[in-house]
Design a protein that fits this description.
Layout (H helix, E strand, L loop, with lengths): L2 E8 L11 E6 L4 E7 L14 H20 L6 H21 L9 E9 L2 E7 L3 E5 L4 E3 L6 H5 L6 H8 L23 E6 L5 E5 L4 H6 L2 H6 L2 H5 L11 E8 L3 H6 L1
Antiparallel strand pairs: 1-10, 2-3, 3-4, 4-5, 5-8, 6-7, 6-9, 9-10
Helix pairs in contact: 1-2
Length: about 260
């Protein structure tokens, strides 16, 4: 399968000293696409940590997860199993980093791993990043925001309660997952597969761009490139980091040359 892949990322506008904590990887040759959103940290003595531990664990996760996929995909054909195990191995690597972390709020990240193989999308996700498939007439969002309930009830809990008692606690009604090295994160990994016959484009986004999914029409989404999505007026109210990967699929050789 031929692809046209575009990526774009933009630093947040929350704080001048807060770095971009989104991270992504694109492997066109093997159809592997990973997008991550590092969990925002607290300031220390009024200063945001830079380098950010959230960005560091995102890099650690991608390196481990991608290498795992590449090492086992030649021997294993169950891509859902591969993706699930890649999350597990990446989370273990984060645990090694966090083992020596002195603070109580463990650095973490959330995101999506997508693999296109044999005209199918195989995916896994945790947290609140967004994945959609679309063509000119239809759109399918294959991820669900795991933080929706805690955002609705956020005033009922302290930050400590949310981070330590709710995050990665599958037994809590408002729970959600974060890859921070704790084993409970594995309970929140969702995997699935979708046939791509009906779809022409895959879009992966961090949650700073969630408003475009709500506000833009299917045609607007389909005909916008990554930079246009990133700079959409519908995202002006979001101060978060913003990252998008667009993958146009099933391109013939003429289309490839014209892209």
């Amino acid at each position: 399968m031929k692809y046209r892949v575009e990526t774009a990322t933009k630093k947040n506008t929350k704080e001048f000293d807060k770095p971009n904590e989104d991270y992504f990887l694109v492997d066109r040759n093997n159809g592997i696409f990973i997008i991550l959103d590092g969990v925002t940290r607290d300031k220390i003595d009024g200063i945001y940590p830079d380098p950010s531990p959230a960005c560091e664990v995102s890099k650690i996760f991608i390196d481990k997860a991608y290498n795992y996929i590449m090492n086992v995909s030649s021997k294993e054909s169950n891509y859902l199993k591969i993706i699930k195990n890649a999350f597990v191995e990446g989370n273990k690597e984060i645990e090694k980093f966090n083992h020596s972390y002195l603070g109580s709020f463990l650095p973490g990240t959330v995101g999506i791993i997508a693999i296109i193989k044999d005209n199918k999308l195989f995916y896994g996700y945790i947290g609140d990043c967004i994945g959609i498939l679309l063509n000119k007439q239809m759109k399918k969002e294959f991820t669900m925001c795991q933080t929706k309930l805690i955002h609705e009830h956020i005033k009922e809990f302290t930050a400590y309660e949310i981070r330590h008692n709710i995050c990665n606690n599958i037994r809590h009604p408002y729970s959600y997952g974060v890859l921070d090295g704790r084993e409970g994160a594995i309970d929140f990994i969702v995997t699935g597969e979708i046939k791509l016959d009906k779809y022409k484009e895959l879009i992966l986004l961090t949650d700073g761009l969630e408003q475009i999914i709500k506000e833009m029409s299917i045609k607007e989404l389909f005909f916008s490139n990554a930079t246009e999505l990133l700079n959409s007026k519908f995202c002006d109210t979001s101060t978060d980091d913003k990252t998008v990967i667009t993958v146009r699929m099933n391109l013939d050789e003429n289309n490839i040359k014209n892209c």
